[in-house]
Amino acid sequence: MKQHIFPAIRLTIICVIFFSGIYTLLIFGIAQFAPAHGEGEAILRNGKVTGYALEGQNFTSDQYFMSRPSAVGYNAAGSGGSNKGPTNPDYLKDVQSRIDRFLVHNKMVKKEQIPSELVTASGSGLDPDISPMGAYIQVQRISQARGIPVDKINSLVQQAIRKPLFGLFGTERVNVLQLNLALDNLK
Questions:
Q1: Quick one: 57 and 96 in the same domain?
Q2: Counted domains in the chain
Q3: What are the backbone angles phi and psi of residue 173, rounded to the nearest 5°?
Q4: CA–CA separation, 126 vs 79, rounded Å?
Q5: DSSP structural state of residue 163
Q6: Within this chain, do residues 175 and 117 fall inside the same structural domain, yes or no?
Q7: Cβ proximity of 98 and 105 under 8 Å
Q8: Is the distance from CB of 129 to CB of 176 less than 8 angstroms?
Q9: How many degrees, rounded to 5, is the angle at CA 122 between CA 120 and CA 123?
């Protein structure tokens, strides 16, 4: 029994030291080379913090691009998903109510055209990005609400598309907060 317990205790101590000390300091050191030294990218407007590029925001006005729904009410302190499966009746009701709400605001769109990220919450509940299709499908509504030509807003969306990291990791995406701030700057 000693031959199993003592190695297990030693391994536990080594893991605690490594993962709570050494690994933490290593990641902290790497973060110091990132923009804002790992503190997150604050987005400023008129010298004041408007939001953070890595945190989803709730936009409800027809004049703005809508973000991906949040399972935690866009509260960064409470990050997490709903843990409801795709056959859960409550989950299906939530998705259907989001579809209905989207269609009320976007009358020219058919149900089948809605990208899934606009009616399903992300795993963290704080996803700041949507797909380019998720942005383009909202252009008509924003054009009507703001009186700005569709092609001008389409151009703005095209400029806001961020490519995958090194062209390999991830998908094309659009940061909703940055896009909405650029939209406010249009004249």
A1: yes
A2: 2
A3: -150, 165
A4: 7
A5: P
A6: yes
A7: no
A8: yes
A9: 130
Q: How far is CA 48 from CA 42, 43, 52, 58, in A?
A: 9, 8, 12, 18
Mean pLDDT confidence for 155-159: 94
Q: Which domain holds residue 23?
A: 1-39
pLDDT in tens, 42-100: 677 777 776 666 677 778 888 999 988 887 777 777 777 777 788 889 889 989 999 99
Residue appearing with tokens 């050494």: 22
Residues 47, 16, single domain; the answer is: no
What does the pLDDT look like over 92-136, one tens digit per residue? 998 999 999 999 998 888 999 999 888 888 777 678 889 999 999
Q: What is the mean pLDDT of residues 34-44?
A: 70
Strands 129-130 and 48-52: unpaired
Residue with tokens 């939209």, as numbered in its chain:
183
What's the DSSP call for residue 113?
Answer: G
Beta-carbon-side half-sphere exposure of residue 113 (alpha carbons within 13 Å)? 12
- Residue 142 and residue 65 share a domain: yes
The token pair that represents 106 in the structure block: 């976007």
